[in-house]
Amino acid sequence: MSALRLLADIGGTNARFALQAPGGGFADIEVLACRDYDRIDDAIAAYLARAAARGLPTDGIRHAAIAIANPVEGDVVSMTNHHWRFSIAGLRDACAFTTLLVVNDFAALAQALPHLGTGGRQRIGGTDSAAVEGRPIGLIGPGTGLGVSGVVPAGGGRWIALAGEGGHASFAPVDRDEMRLLDALWEEHGHVSAERLLSGPGLEAIHRVLAGERLAAADITARALDGSCAACRATVDAFCAILGSVAGNVALTLGATGGMYVGGGIVPRLGPLFHASAFRARFEGKGRLQAYLARIPTWLVTEPYPALRGVAALLDAATP
């Protein structure tokens, strides 16, 4: 019987899988495109079949944990940014797992934050700021959607991850260009959440409103990075500035003097544009609370698969 456990981090675009011996490192990490599979169990079966073909003992896997980009409340999970819908109990039985833990993906990522070493994060401005030990840590991350979470200390070196949907909180503009964005998106959607702007589709929406041009998010970032399109650079600058404002809101809400982290798939691709952006200025730009936020360090998560680390820790706590 296999002693390996199955771990997964599933977003609206990609599903990241790994195997792990309890207390050990990750083995056989593979990323599958969600669109290639009709159901989540199809993706799991495909990954395990490929791992078995590579000589790994997958037949006896009994414990699994999935971090997923969605609220997890009750037995039925229906993804917001993808078509997969499943029963947790039904998936557990179909896969013959003894344990199947399903948690919000940003709660899993948040669980990893206190354990990130210097090689897994990169400082974003605020070089005079320092994290306060044993205080809440905040997290925000734009990707296919916008994840928001944090961890709070629970004593004895333990941390409790917060599973919320802060990405769907209402967007608040701070200048006239952002008022234009809000007006245009109001017409399209009614309620305008932070996720409507801080995501892959959000990057496209910002560009469509400000530049009057429809471009894919990947093209916007590529043209901004190579300097071939001033409008694309302006779009990326607006995106980073808005991200700073929303990150500051999260830090204020959580009292995240233990630090504020940026995860997700988009920001690492922006490279020097992000570090040169107004992100940090907008993070601190909260009027009378500017000095409070100036003391909070901000970090970019650079570890490749941090949510897998987090969901493994949660599975450790859930199994003997």
From TrEMBL:
Its EC number is 2.7.1.2. The gene is glk. It comes from Telluria mixta. Its main location: cytoplasm. PANTHER family: GLUCOKINASE (PTHR47690:SF1). The keyword Transferase applies. This is Glucokinase. It catalyses: D-glucose + ATP = D-glucose 6-phosphate + ADP + H(+). Keywords: ATP-binding, Cytoplasm, Glycolysis, Kinase, Nucleotide-binding, Transferase. Pfam families: Glucokinase. It comes from the Bacteria.
